[in-house]
Design brief:
This protein has 220 residues and is an alpha/beta fold. It is built from 5 helices and 9 strands, in the order βββαβαβαββββαα. The strands form 2 sheets. A 5-stranded mixed sheet has the order 3-2-1-4-5, sandwiched between helices. A 4-stranded mixed sheet has the order 8-7-6-9.
């Protein structure tokens, strides 16, 4: 089964195509302000490089965050539209879990100890979660200052949070961003069953934008 996956929950836009056993095509771009411009062309390129059409796809995989409102919404909405148009299931995965799965398979995380994943939440905060050595989430996801994370200084950390706030964490390990190839692999291995999530954005807090209130009454 061909799985098309992408994640836009961080400054990176990651897209991959997976045949159920391996990644057959992938692309990555890092530009926090151009998610909506980059995603569709990257999807088209990944599919063209693999020589497949939309009709060949069997499922859509999407990183559902947590992440900033605008970039995250671009990916989730695109996944929903593709799923609806093509009649395909759309499977969500926590973006922190994607990073954790990559980190757990790397030699740098093979110490047998728990570790953290933290990404930039802006406002001098991070989105974070705690994982066991195999990459299974044991706490979170949460949002808050890096300095408030319990035992953070004693644990290795993957994601850009460790790069932004190195004084708050232990060893900084990779990867910095969610990898769509790992995302597709998680969905392919699950067979569409839990712990997959619905294609709903995981914001953890309300967006900065607010609807304007009624005009103030002006009195003489």
């Amino acid at each position: 089964m061909l799985v098309l996956g992408f994640d836009t929950a961080t400054p990176a836009v990651s897209v991959a195509l997976h045949d159920g056993e391996r990644v057959i095509s992938a692309a990555l771009a890092v530009d926090a302000r151009r998610h909506s411009e980059l995603l569709a062309p990257m999807i088209a390129k990944v599919m063209a490089d693999a020589g497949v059409s939309r009709g060949d796809l069997g499922a859509i995989a999407i990183g559902v965050g947590p992440g900033p409102y605008t970039g995250l919404r671009v990916g989730v909405v695109t996944a929903r539209v593709l799923g609806s148009v093509l009649g395909l299931p759309v499977h969500g995965v926590c973006s922190l879990d994607i990073i954790a799965a990559s980190a757990a398979s790397a030699a740098s995380a093979g110490s047998g100890r728990e570790f953290l994943v933290a990404t930039d939440a802006r406002r001098k905060e991070v989105y974070w979660a705690r994982y066991d050595a195999a990459g299974r989430r044991v706490a979170g996801p949460y949002v808050g200052p890096a300095s408030s994370i319990p035992e953070a200084a004693e644990l290795a950390v993957a994601g850009t949070g460790g790069q932004l706030y190195p004084e708050a964490f232990g060893e900084v390990i990779g990867p910095a961003y969610p990898d769509a190839g790992t995302l597709c692999g998680l969905v392919a291995q699950s067979g569409g069953q839990p712990p997959l999530l619905a294609a709903e954005p995981l914001y953890l807090r309300r967006p900065d934008a607010r609807e304007p209130g009624p005009p103030k009454r002006v009195t003489p």
